[in-house]
Specification:
single chain; 71 residues; alpha+beta; Metal Transport, Frataxin, Chain A; 3-stranded antiparallel beta sheet; globular
């Protein structure tokens, strides 16, 4: 399945729906944490690179289909 082109803010909202919370922000990157999962560093760009988004999705332990349902 193809990874969509979305902003960092949209990605943050989707990860928030599975329990991730914002811990801190440094520059243009927001660090998110969820108990029992790996932490994420989400860039706050207008459009995330597909490879970056795919890496974040895998790091969160989600499939692309699961992530698309969260959007």
């Amino acid at each position: 399945m193809k990874v969509p082109r979305i902003s960092g803010f949209e990605a943050m909202k989707a990860f928030g729906r599975v329990g991730y919370v914002i811990i801190r922000q440094r520059g243009s990157h927001v660090v998110m944490f969820c108990t029992g999962r790996l932490g994420l560093s989400v860039p706050q760009h207008r459009e995330l690179d597909r490879g970056t988004l795919l890496s974040l999705i895998k790091r969160a332990g989600l499939s692309v289909e699961d992530f698309l349902r969260l959007l």
